[in-house]
Amino acid sequence: MESSIDAASGGQSLIESFRKADIDFSLFFHASPVPTAISTVEGGRMVDVNESFLRLIQSTREELLGRSGLDLSIWVRPKRRESIVQAVRKDGSLTGFPMKLRTRLGGIRETLASSSFFQINGVDYLISSFYDITEQKRAKEALEASEKRLQEIVDLTSDWIWEIDDQGSYTFVSTRIKELAGYAPEELIGKPYSVILHPDAAKRVVEMLGKSWERREPAAFFESTVLHKDGSHIFIEASGTPILDNQGNFRGYRGVCRNITMRKQAETLLKLREEELENERVNLEETNAALRVLLRQRENDKRELEEKLLVNAEELIQPYVAKLKASLLDSRQKACLDVLESHLKDLISPFLHKMKSQFMNLTPMEIKVASLIKDGRTTKEMAALLNVSDRSVEFHRHHIRVKLGLNNRKVNLQTYLASLQ
Q1: 89 and 9 in contact (C-beta within 8 Å)?
Q2: Does this model's pTM top 0.85?
Q3: 252 bridge partner residues
Q4: Distance of CA 40 to the CA centre of its chain
């Protein structure tokens, strides 16, 4: 084939170079890893193909040779081959022309075609190489889809995502910064990250982040204050992680900022409320302390009053009772005087106070009977003093035992009442 190949117009052909170098073109053609086919210009009949081409379209030499690419449906878009032919006729060759090929099994392969024109015995031929870029294109499409998906996530998140270089200047700022702080991303690109920090927070953040920066460590959940473009300030919670290249060299930081202004405001209100509650607690303690003082004073006043009552009874009443007892009295008068003296003692003793406070369900008559029982009076004596019948006294005695919880118990009522003094 080499002896009959003529150089195409426009320069020395590859075939002629092989001939001068005494190299077998056929050997080079079939050993090439690049899928290559030789076809006639007119009709596109396949003259020869190498093994790489056969693997590309999953076919055999017998199925291809002597048949046109159109008959074999190799060209997904037949008119693309016509464009190649016209370009090669005009310029002598064509490089990197996008071309889709259909495999014998129906699959589609994306290729970049390069073609050259030559003649043999007056017949025009095309030698075409097809660089398979199917996997690269799929990878590119997958990467583009991934980047698009990532960008959508970045745009949808309520947080502000950022990247800074190893000098601390912004290289990327998500669009959420506009909503959070009023800045357009392009306003911050190339500027140091501290440019939007509140002056009171900038020094602290630079010092804290500087420690992580030196150690190339992540910085997680640190709080700061950012100046809004309108002059107000917002509270943020930021986290960042180092960016390393394929060789492990430090290239900067990538991170996210979250607006925590509402949380900080709630914390401030909570702190104020806690302070208010603490003040109320202190006030209540002071009030309770004052009430305790008043109660102690009341007890003191009560004790003083009781002491005065005792002294007055001893000094002003008891002498007259003693004089009455020394006078000539009949038995009834003497009994009444004894009761008067006993009640006077009760008045200045805690017995009646306990009876009235601990057993408030006793009637006045039952209290009188209980007092006489404590003093050791018999039923007849009590009946005479109270001007009631013996049966009435026994009735009250029974009710007193019931109300004191002594019914059906072997407890002496007089002894029990005496123990209450």
Answers
A1: no
A2: no
A3: 165, 243
A4: 70
Query: Strand, helix or coil at 299?
Result: helix
* Residue 186 binned pLDDT confidence (cut-offs 50, 70, 90): very high
Q: Are 94 and 101 in contact (CB under 8 A)?
A: no
Amino acid occupying residue 382: M
pLDDT tens digit string along 199-230?
887 777 777 777 777 788 888 778 888 888 88
Report whether 80 contacts 103 (CB < 8 A): no
Percent of residues in the chain assigned helix, strand, coil, to nearest 5: 55, 20, 25
| 196 Cβ neighbours under 8 A, 6+ residues apart | 181, 183, 188, 226, 227
Handedness of CA 179, 182, 188, 193 (dihedral sign): negative
Distances (CA, A) of 245 to 172, 242, 304: 17, 10, 92
For residue 358, pLDDT over 60 is answered with no
How far apart (Å, rounded) are the C-alpha atoms in residues 273 and 87? Answer: 83
In whole angstroms, give the CA distance from residue 62 to residue 104: 13
Q: Give tens-digit pLDDT for 60-71.
A: 999 999 998 888
Name the burial class of residue 7, with classes exposed (0-12), middle (13-18) and buried (19+) by CB atoms within 10 angstroms of its CB: middle
Q: Is the pLDDT of residue 4 over 50?
A: no
What the chain holds in terms of domains, given with CATH numbers, is 2-134 (3.30.450.20), 157-259 (3.30.450.20), 328-419 (1.10.10)
Q: Among residues of the chain, what percentage have pLDDT more than 70?
A: 87
